[in-house]
Amino acid sequence: MRVLGIDPGSETLGWGIVEGSGSAYSSVEFGTVRANTKLAFSKRLFVMYEGVAEVIDRFAPDVLSIEEAFYAKNASVALKLGQVRGVILVLAEQRGLEIAEYAARLIKQTVVGYGNAEKQQVGMMVKVLLKLKTVPAPHDAADALAAAICHFHHQRTAQSGKRK
Fold first, then answer.
1. Would you name the residues annotated as active-site residues?
2. Any residues with CB less than 8 A from the CB of 56 and at least 6 apart, and which?
3. Fewest C-beta in 10 Å: which of 8, 24, 68, 97?
4. What's the chain's average pLDDT?
5. Residue extents of the structural domains in the chain
6. 2-163 has which CATH code?
7. Cα distance between residue 164 and residue 132, in whole Å
């Protein structure tokens, strides 16, 4: 199974591809899609769409694992992130990917063991779990890899529950 993890953002969107089966998985590739903040927001959404479409075409993932919408102190930020998520969810549906959504706290809990973990802690644990030489940078890519790892852990748990 190949999982595309996404950390949505309207300026920088992190992505990471993790491949494996059961409890064995490894990093394939990771990176970011960046949009110039001077562009109209609709154009930034299109940049994110095209960037993630290119990743899907290049790596042919089976599953999209994406952070769920969350409540932000700034309503404008929450709305923009929701729109980015919507664009990526539509793209995943168009491409026939299975979609898994996880709360940010659950991703952190799964990867670090603590739902309020700091970005540096997430990055360090992603490095350890994927046996990487360095912490994935920028943090958006590390967070995307964490979303993919989270899917492996929870998908495995769901499957083992079905076997009983």
1. 7, 67, 140
2. 4, 91, 92, 95, 97
3. 24
4. 91
5. 2-163
6. 3.30.420.10
7. 35
